[in-house]
Specification:
heterodimer, A: mainly alpha, Arc Repressor Mutant, subunit A, 3 strands, elongated, B: about 525 residues, five-stranded mixed sheet, about 10% strand, DUF742 (chain A)
Chain lengths: ~120, ~525
């Protein structure tokens, strides 16, 4: 998943996407927040182009916020604002990333092992 | 006694002789006197003449002197003023009797010399001023670009909302500074200072508006049918032209009024139309703007006012150098309408949206935005990226109209799952109509793509084989081509149950896509970039 190559100087600056805002309306988002489109995609009318493109991007499946930012070629901070707006409008779902299945801690495993051994020996 | 008569005779004769002589003398002197009188009369007359002549000469000398004084006191200053301000009238001769005389010619020659000298000097001084400005702006511009890069990197690096917001604000300020410097540099004869790669026209328009405070008021409508791009060398100049015209529109309209921008594709190029509902321009201003934007006359810094208004002059320079056409006219909204036309032949190209996607902020093309969910991506032109827009003479609008008709039909057919989506084809089958009469092709034939398409969609019609194809014919072909490729993409996207490895030959079954997933758009971008896990 490499973003498209960025050759040359950008023509369209990032502040255009949010008219200069970089403080999202909710601060629950981070780079790994998983985004997926709302269940019933309403019409795209009334949305700004960057929002339409973000929704289009998510039509194919879920993406993390960082990935979406890379596809849109926008800074993460700006995409956070976009996402927060869309979540507020109910057009987008964002959830915290599901952590990798964690292995139990070594100490616990050792305790269990010891317990089993004592059971066996007794 | 005798002596007395003799003596008398002698005396008498002498007397007589004397009398005769005297008479003669008298007569002579009378003649002399008469001659003298005549001579004196002529002398007097001559004298009178001479006096008159002298008076006339003196008058003439006085008039000449007055004329020279007039030249020094009035005409020469008038001339210098007129050279600086063309509306100042230059007074003529004081005495119209001198018209056409040697004096007139001499004085005119003096004025010409003065005019030449002043003009040359002005050009020289202006050239020097421009050169020094160029030097300064080039350096500043380069520094501002570095700053831009730096700010951009920082925007990527720092996530903290407060920092990010400040960075965005700084970036915006930097863009505005760049725009000012750039237009000044261009008026001073510099090049735009930057070469970009081929870019989408929509990107250029939003890039241009991003350089202006008040850009929120700009509402861009994208009516391009194809992914039209501008060739690399004209990208930045085009952006500058649009920026200046947009700045004009924003500056001269109320800060709450919108500025409407429309991007249009024509047969011979693309146009950007900028409408404001502001204060408008007088006919005189309009005429001056038009003259400056034609780029035909050299502009002097000194003619641009104080502080110099560089907008129209910069537009004129770039229009001349790169081949744009820019014009202004009264807008139907009450303000000014500015139109930039970018000729297709040297300056436009078609871009592959998959290789080079548009900026997310660029306005969504009309065909894409208006197409409600059940229509696959309708961006035409992917399949033929080499095709220059002007190579299809009249097919353009017609093709899009047909494509639109096809979409409408598809939308109508889509709502029920039972119903197969129906498409209105403008021609029965491609193989049958490539050479058929256009009249036959006009008949819309409904067909269910699922059942019949395998053969019919098999080969998308190639570029017109007959050079004399009528506009309707080629419009049909392109429309069919676009529909074919679009449906092919849709089929590939949803897992190719139609079994088409070749997107062009795949039987389209778009309704499956709609039913199975929300994959309405089948956007090539999401197909390319999306992990779709």
């Amino acid at each position: 998943m490499t973003p498209p190559p960025r050759d040359g100087r950008r023509l369209v600056p990032a502040y255009l996407a949010t008219t200069g805002r970089a403080r999202p309306s909710r601060n629950t988002l981070d780079r790994l927040t998983v985004l997926h489109g709302a269940a019933d995609p309403a019409t795209v009318s009334g949305l700004r182009p960057e929002e339409i493109r973000l929704l289009e991007l998510l039509r194919g499946g879920a993406l993390s916020l960082a990935e979406a930012a890379a596809h849109l070629r926008l800074p993460v901070s700006v995409v956070k604002v976009l996402v927060a707006d869309l979540v507020d409008a109910g057009r987008l779902m964002a959830r915290a990333p599901i952590p990798d299945a964690e292995l139990p801690e070594r100490q616990i495993l050792e305790k269990v092992l010891n317990g089993l051994r004592t059971l066996k020996s007794s | 006694m005798t002596e007395i008569p003799v003596a008398l005779t002698v005396i008498l004769s002498v007397g007589t002789a004397a009398a005769v002589a005297l008479a003669l003398l008298l007569a002579r002197s009378a003649r002399e006197a008469k001659r003298l009188r005549q001579r004196s009369a002529t002398a007097e007359k001559d004298l009178q003449d001479a006096l008159r002549q002298q008076a006339a000469l003196a008058g003439r000398a006085q008039a000449t002197e007055a004329e020279v004084r007039h030249l020094a006191a009035a005409r020469a200053p008038d001339l210098t003023a007129a050279l600086a301000h063309p509306n100042v009238p230059v007074r003529g001769l004081l005495d119209p009797n001198f018209q056409g005389t040697e004096l007139d010619r001499a004085l005119t020659a003096v004025l010409e010399q003065v005019s030449n000298a002043v003009t040359k000097e002005r050009l020289r001084v202006d050239g020097a001023a421009q050169a020094s400005m160029r030097g300064a702006t080039t350096t500043i511009q380069a520094l501002l670009y570095q700053l831009q890069t730096r700010l951009q990197t920082m925007q990527e690096r720092y996530d903290d909302p407060f920092v990010a917001e400040d960075l965005l604000a700084a970036d915006f300020l930097n863009e505005q500074a760049l725009r000012r410097i750039q237009s000044t540099a261009i008026v001073c004869g510099a090049w735009p200072g930057l070469t970009r790669q081929n870019s989408h026209l929509g990107d250029i328009v939003v890039g241009a508006m991003s350089r202006l405070s008040g850009y929120e008021r700009v509402q861009v409508t994208n009516q391009l049918r194809d992914p039209v791009g501008v060739v690399a060398r004209a990208v930045e100049p085009g952006a500058v032209v649009l920026t200046e015209l947009l700045a004009n529109a924003l500056h001269y309209s109320h800060p709450e009024l919108p500025v409407a921008v429309t991007i249009q594709q024509g047969n011979r190029g693309a146009s950007v139309i900028i409408d404001d509902a502001g204060v408008g321009m007088h006919a005189e201003e309009m005429e001056r703007a038009q003259r400056m934007m034609s780029g035909q006359e050299t502009t002097l810094l000194t003619e641009l006012g104080d502080p110099p208004k560089t907008g129209f002059a910069a537009v004129g320079q770039l229009a001349r150098q790169y081949g744009f056409t820019a014009s202004v006219e009264p807008s139907p909204y009450g303000g000014v309408r500015a139109i930039v036309h970018i000729p297709g032949d040297p300056l436009l190209t078609l871009l592959d949206e998959e290789e080079q996607p548009m900026s997310p902020m660029a306005p969504v093309p009309r065909s894409n935005a208006s197409a409600a969910p059940p229509v696959p991506s309708t961006l035409p032109g992917h399949a033929v990226p080499q095709r220059p827009p002007q190579s299809e003479p009249a097919a353009g609008t017609a093709a899009s109209a047909y494509a639109q008709a096809g979409q409408d039909a598809a939308q109508q057919g889509a709502p029920s799952d039972e119903d197969l989506p129906r498409r209105r084809r403008r021609r029965p089958a491609p193989d049958a109509t490539l050479g058929a009469a256009p009249g036959a092709g006009q008949v819309p034939a409904e067909e269910a793509p699922q059942s019949q398409s395998t053969g019919r969609h098999a080969q998308p019609p190639q570029a017109p084989q007959q050079p004399q194809a009528s506009p309707e014919q080629s419009a049909e072909r392109w429309a069919a081509f676009q529909r074919g490729t679009n449906s092919g993409r849709a089929a590939v996207d949803e897992g190719t149950e139609a079994g088409g490895a070749n997107p062009a030959s795949a039987a389209p079954s778009p309704h499956h896509g709609f039913a199975v997933a929300d994959d309405h758009y089948a956007d090539p971008r999401s197909a390319e970039g999306n992990p779709q896990e």
